[in-house]
Design goal:
The protein has 26 helices and 14 strands. With 596 residues, the protein is an alpha/beta fold. Among the domains are: 149 residues, Periplasmic binding protein-like II (D-Maltodextrin-Binding Protein, domain 2, 3-Layer(aba) Sandwich); 196 residues, MetI-like fold (Orthogonal Bundle). It has a 5-stranded mixed sheet with strand order 2-1-3-14-4, sandwiched between helices. A 5-stranded mixed sheet has the order 10-7-11-6-12. Helix 20 crosses helix 22.
Length: 596
């Protein structure tokens, strides 16, 4: 029987009905089941080692110049290699496997319904913590279809890198350009060779835009694409060889004055992701910046950039605070329900970044020979002196002090008024004051601030500083009013009666008898409320106000140093609070009775 089977197989091989053993491998590669496909794609990461350069290089098409060394370690290309204008496409990720002679290239996933993100999420990310930026494409995609992934959201992508550095998360998902810049500057981070998405970024505009702005932007983009301007813009900022950015000077004030004046084009952006949009020499720069400056020039409109948190961009666009958003934003299905998007101007895939212990050890070895003073002076130069970044701190410090002082003054005055209503004999006034206090003390401060900016003053062209002062004044009034009321009620009733017996009227009794005692009771707690208010101002970055905290975030986004900027900002806040405490401790107000 055994010989009969061998004879049948031999006849089938000779007739060509069965492929020879050397020809069976291609069919297995193209038709492998899902589990084996996942194992092949993730073979490198599961072993905690990246795919070797030869394996990745063999999986790339000849027309795609990005080499594996760039993908894995964020290093510049070898001399003579052409510059990269577009990132790798998602198909190339699946080709990061050993190529054998006679084996055709895998151009598509093993099963078309299985995307690269599906494979990576199932075999690599499941059960692990992944850092993403709030509102980013990475958060949207992971939260919608991959419940097995533990998502950790951060308002700033640099906070995500800091969490990865501290071991709080296993991976970080971000745009390829951001990951490349960070890993090139810090080899402690390593980019995994899997492009999870390949969606393109567009300019977002409001759905109810009646000025035809979307049509105008699409028309300009089409012209840029045709005459090569778009390629030039991309080449100016996507510099994989590590060379300096090519910055174009603009002086387009538009036609915003005189007859036929056009209003400025207000563009919302999150300037914390180099090279797409970031702060350089204390001004906004980057690919998105140059693109919108050229669009404004073509439309004859001055461009005004509004820097804010990424998660607040859509809200700012819907409320009319900005006319357009250019911040490497991808047109997802959810976003399209809220706003409209222009044609794609750049494809920036989402990639995974992991901690690279080998690079971390090499970095530590290089810095081991430096003394503490050398490390300190180096950090001081990079974070403050280079590009005059100390100006960001000084400007942010002034904004923080301005908001705090004005809020304390107006909040105290408003608090006294609310206290009077709270102690009124009229039931309606007491009920109103009580409702006001409950409302502003029950809602988180950041929510109140965003509601005031994006809802209450949505159509008003007022600055974020004004809204911040108004909001914090109302919040401070709700706390100080109760402080004033409890202090007055703590004074025995006999004190008031004694004033009347001495011939004082109602005002004089309050001014010279009740107020001094109430101030002495309330003052220690009042100082604490002021300190809380100063620290509360750190949230104004959500409404495009560049305060001290926002200035520190901008510096961190350029230097990738999580320690020095945070400690510096913390020390400055301590000095501010210490100064306010000392100032308030000098109590020289004349509250004594009038001389007869």
């Amino acid at each position: 029987m055994k010989r009969l089977l061998q004879l049948i197989i031999l006849l089938l091989l000779q007739a060509g009905a069965l492929p020879a053993a050397s020809q069976q491998r291609p069919a297995q590669v193209q038709q492998a089941p899902k589990p084996s496909g996942a194992q092949q794609v993730l073979q490198g990461p599961q072993a905690q080692e990246p795919l070797v350069a030869q394996q990745v290089l063999q999986g790339l098409q000849a027309q795609e110049p990005l080499v594996a060394q760039q993908v894995l370690q964020g290093q510049p290309k070898e001399q003579g290699a052409p510059q990269v204008q577009e990132p790798l496409v998602a198909q190339q990720v699946l080709q990061g496997q050993p190529k054998e002679q006679g084996v055709p290239q895998v151009q598509e996933p093993v099963h078309e319904e299985r995307s690269v993100l599906d494979v990576v999420a199932d075999s690599l990310l499941a059960g692990n913590k992944v850092a993403v930026m709030t509102g980013s494409l990475g958060e949207i995609m992971l939260s919608e279809g991959y419940p097995e992934v533990i998502i950790q959201c951060f308002d700033d992508i640099m906070d995500g890198f800091a969490a990865l550095h501290a071991g709080k998360v296993s991976y970080l998902m971000t745009a390829y350009t951001t990951a490349y810049v960070v890993s090139r500057s810090n080899p402690s981070y390593r980019i995994l060779p899997y492009h999870l998405t390949n969606e393109g970024a567009g300019v977002a505009v409001a759905k109810d835009n009646s000025t035809g702005l979307l049509r105008q932007i699409d028309s300009v983009l089409a012209g840029f694409r045709q005459d090569g301007t778009l390629d030039k813009i991309i080449g100016n900022w996507i510099r994989h060889d590590g060379s300096e950015y090519v910055v174009t000077e603009f002086d387009n004030k538009g036609t915003s004055s005189g007859a036929g004046a056009l209003p400025p084009l207000r563009v919302g952006t999150s300037a914390n992701r180099e090279p797409m949009c970031f702060v350089r020499n204390n001004t906004i720069s980057g690919l998105d910046w140059e693109l919108m400056m050229r669009i404004g020039q073509a439309l004859g409109r001055e461009v005004v950039f509004v820097d804010m948190k990424y998660a607040a961009l859509i809200a700012a666009l819907q409320s009319g605070k900005v006319d357009a958003v250019a911040s490497n934003m991808t047109a997802t299905a959810e976003r399209k329900k809220q706003v409209d998007f222009s044609a794609v101007y750049y494809v920036n895939p989402q990639v995974l970044v992991e901690w690279n212990p080998v690079g971390a050890e090499a970095t530590a070895a290089r810095s081991s020979g430096q003394s503490f003073w050398e490390k300190f002076t180096d950090s001081l130069y990079r974070n403050l002196l280079h590009e005059k970044r100390y100006m960001l701190i000084l400007d942010g410090l002034w904004v923080t002090i301005l908001i705090a002082v004005m809020s304390v003054i107006f909040g105290s005055i408003a608090g006294a008024g609310v206290c009077a209503l709270r102690m009124s004999r009229h039931t309606v006034l007491r009920a109103f004051a009580k409702s006001y206090i409950t409302l502003f003390r029950a809602i988180p401060q950041v929510v109140i601030l965003m509601v005031m900016f994006y809802v209450v003053f949505a159509t008003a062209r007022i600055s974020g500083i004004f809204v911040s002062v108004l909001t914090f004044s109302l919040i401070f009034a709700s706390y100080s009013s109760e402080l004033f009321r409890t202090s007055l009620e703590a004074i025995p009733l006999g004190q008031r009666q004694a004033g009347y017996a001495m011939g004082f009227n109602k005002y004089q009794t309050f001014r010279y008898i009740l107020l001094p005692q109430a101030a002495r009771i309330a003052f220690p707690v009042y100082k604490g409320e002021i300190i809380s208010l100063i620290k509360m101002t750190a949230i104004v970055g959500y409404i495009a106000v560049q305060d001290l905290t926002k200035a520190g975030d901008i510096i961190r986004s350029r230097t990738f140093d999580a320690f020095f900027p945070l400690v510096m900002v913390a020390l400055i806040y301590m000095l501010i609070i210490w100064g306010f405490t000392k100032l308030l401790s000098v109590r020289r107000w004349n509250l004594s009775a009038p001389k007869s």
